[in-house]
Write a structure and sequence with these properties.
4 domains; seven-stranded parallel sheet; six-stranded antiparallel sheet; alpha+beta; elongated; disordered N terminus; Immunoglobulin-like; Alpha-Beta Plaits; 612 residues
Length: 612
């Protein structure tokens, strides 16, 4: 069951693909003690002739990860980092880029044969010029209508879907199912299918190679009122199959991210990912931000480990835990701070490959319940923002377990009727601009490649941050947390003003306070090439000409002339000429100092003692 097959990764020009032929196989460890099938199991499909008969239900527990791709890492440089600097950053691990996820500025980095991927990841994470570095983890699946088996779909009345259908059924919304493909010939799915893509093989063949994707699709958008089977939660929505997995149903974080990009660029407003461990990937979270910038939401399964997962909460993904017919937590459902909401996931009636039906359990099936509910909301109110969808799904959910939010149920079990009703009353207008600030640098002298960290927030959500130097755009970052790299090695030393502009989905813009820095890559002090006064000389009794010239490898900024401790003349450039009135000057010794400063702040001075 180990996923040995390499997968193709689409490059930024969309014409080439990368096959991991130099890094075949699969590394197990870290988070796994044995290979697990990992999907929410199901029994044999019920006979089409007797679709109302419910077969037994099985479920298999799974760890969130089953290993990682051998010989590669996912590495995101800070926007603005020159290509040569990125290549230099990979040298400590002898890595080189073999693929590029353009939308999220992330490289698929190949390591030498026999390299320790985890050790290489830790080494690269020391470099602040890299936004994030992670293993390419492999994940397994988290496994009122007239239809004859509607009574088998207990989850529909539980979430009050029939009431929601009075207002919206998903029409006009496309749900991308990122999975093993979909059986396009299934009579309860075919009318709702739209063209998709096979990210794993980089072609248009989205046939289901395992079965999991067909099960998930039926939960979301099984066709209604066609005298077959039952109905999906959003039976009026379209299903876009995006295959991200091999024949064993294993996918990688990189294929998941690629699938999100493809779906986002081809009109999907909801993406469902019924896979374990997806919530913990920075690459996937960044891809989800890309979809959110286009007005869509990503819904993922919490996983079937049955235990606590130490995955941090994030605003990019809606993560779904599973409940049973009694609104109790399913024993297999993973939990932790990353869980946002819960939904039915035990003995869910759905479609199977070959035109059949079955009951299946797992967070794999809770996730499409919520994804389809999101489609209902967007169908009811096309002006909703992703943040509106998040808020409506959580605020209208039925509170279970401990009062308020908890790590088992999130905000509660989804309530489609209440959420749709609230969506219809929501006026999605946003006039509030984001706030932004530069966290570092905060001023002072900088040199080399400078990491620029940004804080940005908004009442709805920040979709992009632009980095400016002296009013000129340097780089843009579409993915939180926003961070840049500024290469000052090609800049003339001197003072610069940094600022950031943050944008939300409505186009509102907020500008940060400016930060002044001094670029100082030059450590070579200027030279005083001529000074007409010499130590011990006797000056003119009435008027003494003073002339100074200086040179520097990058340029002289200022020459200052100080006589007897008082600055008497300043020249901004490489020469200074001064007429010193010495008529009333007291007889005796006098101190004359020249101070030369270059653009980097390096200083050279010379002092002579003269006599009158």
């Amino acid at each position: 069951m180990s996923p040995h097959n390499p997968f193709p990764v689409q490059l930024s020009d969309n014409r080439r693909c990368y096959r991991a032929t130099t890094a075949p196989g699969f590394t197990l460890g870290l988070l796994v003690v044995a290979l697990l099938t990992g999907y929410a199991g199901f029994s044999e499909a019920a006979s089409v002739a007797n679709p109302g008969k419910q077969p037994p239900v099985t479920v298999e527990k799974a760890q969130p990860y089953v290993g990682w791709a051998r010989g590669r890492l996912l590495v995101a440089p800070r926007p603005g980092l020159p290509a040569a600097r990125f290549d230099q950053a990979l040298r400590p691990v002898n890595g080189h880029s073999k693929g590029y996820l353009r939308q999220v500025n992330t490289y698929i980095v190949e390591l030498p044969p026999g390299a320790d991927e985890a050790a290489a990841m830790r080494e690269l994470r020391k470099n602040r010029n890299l936004k994030y570095v992670e293993l390419d983890m492999a994940v397994a699946p988290a496994l009122a209508v007239t239809d004859p088996s509607y009574g088998s779909s207990w989850e529909l009345p539980k979430i009050q879907a029939p009431t929601a259908w009075d207002s919206a059924n998903g029409t006009g919304v496309t749900i991308a199912v990122l999975d093993t493909g979909v059986d396009s010939s299934h009579p309860d799915l075919a009318p709702n299918l739209v063209p998709g893509w096979n990210v794993y093989d980089n072609n248009s063949n989205t046939a289901d190679v395992h079965g999991h994707g067909t099960w998930v699709s039926g939960v979301a958008a099984m066709v209604a009122n066609n005298a077959r089977g039952s109905a999906g939660v959003a039976w009026g929505a379209k299903i876009m199959p995006v295959r991200i997995a091999d024949a064993n149903a294993y996918a990688y974080w990189s294929t998941v991210a690629q699938g999100i990009y493809w779906a986002a660029d081809h009109g999907a407003k909801v993406v469902n990912i019924s896979y374990n461990g997806v919530s913990g990937s920075s690459t996937v979270q960044s891809a989800a931000q890309y979809l959110r910038s286009k007005g869509g939401v990503v819904v993922v399964a919490a996983g079937n480990s049955g235990g606590l997962e130490n995955i941090a909460a994030n605003d990019s993904l809606l993560t779904v835990a599973a409940t049973d017919q009694n609104d109790a937590r399913a024993s297999f459902s993973s939990y932790g701070p990353y869980v946002d909401v819960s939904a039915p996931g035990v003995s869910i009636y759905t479609t199977t490959v070959g035109g059949g039906y079955a009951n299946a359990s797992g967070t794999s099936f809770s996730s499409p319940v919520v994804a389809a509910t999101a489609a209902l909301l967007l169908s009811a109110n096309k002006n909703l923002t992703p943040a509106d969808v998040d808020r409506l799904l959580t605020s209208t959910s039925v509170d279970l377990g401990t009062s308020g939010y908890d790590q088992y149920y999130g905000a509660g079990r989804v309530n489609a009727a209440a959420a749709v009703a609230a969506a219809r009353q929501t006026v999605a207008t946003d006039t509030q601009a984001p706030t932004a600030s530069i966290a570092s640098p905060t001023g002072g002298r900088v040199s080399g490649v400078v990491p620029v960290d940004v804080n940005a927030s908004d009442n709805v959500g920040v979709t992009r941050a632009d980095f400016y130097v002296n009013g000129q755009l340097v780089a843009s970052d579409n993915l939180a947390p926003f961070a840049f790299a500024w290469d000052t090695s090609i800049k003339t030393d001197g003072s610069y003003t940094l600022s950031v502009q943050a944008f939300d989905a409505a186009g509102n813009r907020g500008t940060s306070p400016s930060v002044a820095v001094t670029v100082g890559n030059d450590t070579t002090a200027p030279a005083i090439s001529s000074f007409n006064l010499t130590d011990g000389m006797t000056i003119s009794p009435s008027k003494q000409a003073v002339s100074v010239s200086a040179t520097d490898n990058q340029g002289v900024a200022k020459i200052s002339l100080v006589i007897d401790g008082k600055e008497v003349a300043v020249a901004y450039g490489s020469s200074l000429n001064y007429s010193w009135n010495t008529r009333k000057l007291a007889k005796g010794t006098h101190s004359v100092s020249v101070r030369v400063t270059d653009n980097a702040g390096n200083v050279t001075s010379r002092t002579v003692t003269v006599y009158k």
